[in-house]
Design goal:
Cell Division Protein Zipa, Chain: A; seven-stranded antiparallel β-sheet; 5 helices; alpha+beta; 136 residues; single chain
Amino acid sequence: MAAWHYDLFLVATGPLDSGPLKARLSRDLPVLKSPTSKLLLWGDAEGDRIDFWVDHTPPQFLARFDLRTPSDSFRRLVLDVAREFSLQLLNAEDGEIAGNDAALTADMRASAAHAAATNPPAEDEENGEQGEDEEP
């Protein structure tokens, strides 16, 4: 996961027939090639995407948001899918997020991923270099 990725887990709160959910995701997002048959992927490999481990109980999906280029349509899709299939939303710290745009957007803006996306480190910081006036 890159520093600018915000992860949101969508967890089934009861019985879930994942067939209709997988069909919905396949209709709305491109299907990605997966490194294993146990992982299904939709979206953009380097950007916004949804991961589904088929052997996880309860069924759980990971929505990964690329906060460098926020997508309102991807965020709405994730919220619509969560509502339609009664999925609980949990952030990477296991904090429950209300299933509405305001709550999800607020949590994204409070995340380390948002800070990384909006304030990327200076090039010399990325390379571990120090400025002229800095002490070693």
